[in-house]
Specification:
With 52 residues, the protein is mostly helical. The chain has four helices and no strands.
Amino acid sequence: MILICFIAPWLAMFLRGHMVQGVLCIILHLTVIGWIPATIWALAVCRREGAT
């Protein structure tokens, strides 16, 4: 799942069931500068979901 967060953060959000956040990640991922925050955001969501 961590690899998916680096390659396609929006896909990680969709796989976790966060559709609205996934769309926002797609928008961020389309920009070069927004790719880094989108990846960090997806990693945070995946780690939080995995902890519960």
